[in-house]
Design brief:
By secondary structure, the chain is mainly alpha-helical. It is 57% helix and 0% strand.
Length: 88
């Protein structure tokens, strides 16, 4: 798994953990919704500034965006969910 894939899956993990849709998370971070999708699929070429912003937005350390254990959990999440369905 690449570093960008790890960051993407962990972004998805924490977004689900806090019950945020991509739209809500985009509004919170001022990223475009399409960019959130690109991040979560591991296709974004993130800057250090954006990696720091992602970590800060979830109240976590940057290192936590590189955790394989949580990335593996997020890889089992559906790619699209009903915005009213909350995953615990």
């Amino acid at each position: 798994m690449t570093a960008m894939q790890l960051i993407g899956l962990n972004t998805k993990y924490y977004r689900y953990k806090y019950h945020l849709t991509q739209e809500q998370y985009a509004n919170m971070t001022k990223f475009k919704m399409a960019y959130i999708s690109t991040i979560e699929t591991g296709d974004a070429n993130l800057t250090c500034k954006n990696i720091d912003l992602i970590a800060t937005s979830f109240g976590i350390k940057v290192e936590q965006l590189f955790q394989e254990e949580t990335a593996k959990i997020a890889s089992s999440f559906p790619s699209r969910i009903d915005m009213y369905h909350k995953i615990e």
